[in-house]
Design goal:
Elements: E1 3-4, H1 9-35, H2 43-63, E2 65-69, E3 73-78, E4 84-88, E5 92-100, E6 104-105, E7 109-110, E8 115-122, E9 127-130, H3 138-149
Antiparallel strand pairs: 1-2, 2-3, 3-4, 5-8, 6-7, 8-9
Helix pairs in contact: 1-2
Length: about 150
Amino acid sequence: MIVVSKFEKLYLLRNIFFPIICIGLSILLIDVKMYYKKDADVTFPVTFLLIVGCLVLFYNLNSIYKLILEEKTIIKIYVLSRRKESIPYTSIKSLDKEFIDGSHIYEVGQITPGYYDYKFSLEDDKELIISPSNFKNYKQLITEINLRCGW
């Protein structure tokens, strides 16, 4: 059975939030110059915000990947570049679970309970991270990888 990962919507939103803020601020500065302060020099801040926003957007989009679990391998496809990595199940050395604390506000208390990130250590000193904050079907992904690795 082939299993395809499904993105969590907030994960995608988190990755494009900062670039949208940078681009929005640069548009606001241009608007202020055009309609309110015609003599204001906003070229440097606008250029800086646009460059930072675009660089962060491309970096974040290049780090987002989709997983396809096949019979013998895991295929990792990066969203922006469409580059594919093939990870055989035999190259997975170990599984580490790391607990990520939930949100906590002093006045209110604990808002979210926290969750586990699953980190698979690979032979070439790389890690494959599967997190519930990234994938909707992370439990299915973890279960399938564990079954195919024989753990």
